[in-house]
């Protein structure tokens, strides 16, 4: 939903606003009336081939969209032949930009090597070099924040550096900063389930030929499903997903979990809960289908699940019989059978292990949107597609 101030600006008489899309390249279907105002795009997601004649169209599959923004700033400053960047690029702005680059690349972690592009490296090195020219550094700027030493847990202070020669220099310089950001981002100890759902929430609207607009939501948190099961219980998770979807008028709600595989359930009584920094990285996906006899009857839900399982996400049923296995595969790969036995929850919530751990929400949304766009009415459900 658009902020009222922006609605007022767009709908104002005689106004000719310019909209620039950053970190996405299309507006929500319900806001398509704004398309005519889009003059520029800076994005790293799948190119939907829209706004082809916009003044700025900077789409590249970099790891961090901030890299594209930084390099555009760099190019413009060079064009203006500004010799002293400190007024245009003060240290606090540089630190803000580096925060996104650090988090998006996981401090240039080796596991992100396939995602990290030359633009990510160039943008980060340029910002670090600017700090050096100013006679400061990332660590020096952090020293101005008196609480840093108390926020960063000892366990993650020194084991987040990249061992790759290509990234080592950058990673070392950002290590302490990343530890701080990671710690703050990972602390979900004071959040209830609704808070978690709202923490990193995105609404997606899909056009379906038979049903019109289908709205579904996605939420992502840096914590594994076993942590949530241990803390809240599976029934409360299902109930709250149901409530959240209905309160937001969603036809489906998808909850994404990610993190390291080490068991953190023993830390439930601690004041903060940080994701472990050892063990294999993994993901889980939980999906709620809102009760709708026309859109999501049992057949269409099963078809949707089958298509998701066959997609690049590589979803298999989450193994509730061994919750401490952190998403170990269920014995059977037959999803319908497993979910009749294991996931027979009244609210139609389905829990999966995502075996393709490289696929983030950026890859999940196009896959889910494509599947939901093809759902047919009951009379057409014998179609080979859905």
Automatic annotation (TrEMBL):
Q: Which InterPro entries does UniProt cross-reference here?
A: DHH_sf (IPR038763), DHHA2 (IPR004097), DHHA2_dom_sf (IPR038222)
SMART domains per record:
DHHA2
Give one GO term, molecular function aspect.
exopolyphosphatase activity
Q: What Pfam families does this protein map onto?
A: DHHA2 (PF02833)
GO CC terms, sorted: cytoplasm
* All copies of domain DHHA2, residue ranges: 178-372
Write down what this protein is called. Answer: Exopolyphosphatase
């Amino acid at each position: 939903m658009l902020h009222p101030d922006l609605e007022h600006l767009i709908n104002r008489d005689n106004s000719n606003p310019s909209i620039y899309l950053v970190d996405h390249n299309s507006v929500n279907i319900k806001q398509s009336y704004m398309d005519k105002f889009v003059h520029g795009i800076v994005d790293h997601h799948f190119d939907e081939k829209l706004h082809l004649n916009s003044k700025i169209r900077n789409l590249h599959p970099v790891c961090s969209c901030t890299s594209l923004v930084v390099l555009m700033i760099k190019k413009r400053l060079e064009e203006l032949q500004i010799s002293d960047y400190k007024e245009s690029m003060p240290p606090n702005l540089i630190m803000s930009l580096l925060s996104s680059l650090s988090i998006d690349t996981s401090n240039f972690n080796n596991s992100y090597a396939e995602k990290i592009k030359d633009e990510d490296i160039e943008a980060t090195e340029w910002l670090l070099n600017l700090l050096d020219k100013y006679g400061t550094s990332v660590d020096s700027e952090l020293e101005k924040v008196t609480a840093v030493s108390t926020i960063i847990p000892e366990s993650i202070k020194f084991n987040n550096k990249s061992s790759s020669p290509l990234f080592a220099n950058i990673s070392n310089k950002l290590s302490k900063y990343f530890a701080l950001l990671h710690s703050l981002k990972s602390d979900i100890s004071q959040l209830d389930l609704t808070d978690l759902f709202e923490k990193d929430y995105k609404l997606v609207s899909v056009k379906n030929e038979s049903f019109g607009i289908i709205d579904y939501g996605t939420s992502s948190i840096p914590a594994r499903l076993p942590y949530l099961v241990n803390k809240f219980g599976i029934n409360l998770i299902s109930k709250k997903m149901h409530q959240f979807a209905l309160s937001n008028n969603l036809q489906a709600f998808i909850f994404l979990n990610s993190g390291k595989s080490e068991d953190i359930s023993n830390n439930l009584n601690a004041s903060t809960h940080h994701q472990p920094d050892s063990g294999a990285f993994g993901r889980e996906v939980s999906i709620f289908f809102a009760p709708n006899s026309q859109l999501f009857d049992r057949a269409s839900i099963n078809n949707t699940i089958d298509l998701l399982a066959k997609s690049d996400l590589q979803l298999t049923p989450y193994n509730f019989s061994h919750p401490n296995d952190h998403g170990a595969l269920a014995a059977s790969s037959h999803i319908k059978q497993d979910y009749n036995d294991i996931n027979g929850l009244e609210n139609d919530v389905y829990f999966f292990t995502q075996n393709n751990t490289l696929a983030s929400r950026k890859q999940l949304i196009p896959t889910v949107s494509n599947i939901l766009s093809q759902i047919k009415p009951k009379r057409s459900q014998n179609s080979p597609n859905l």
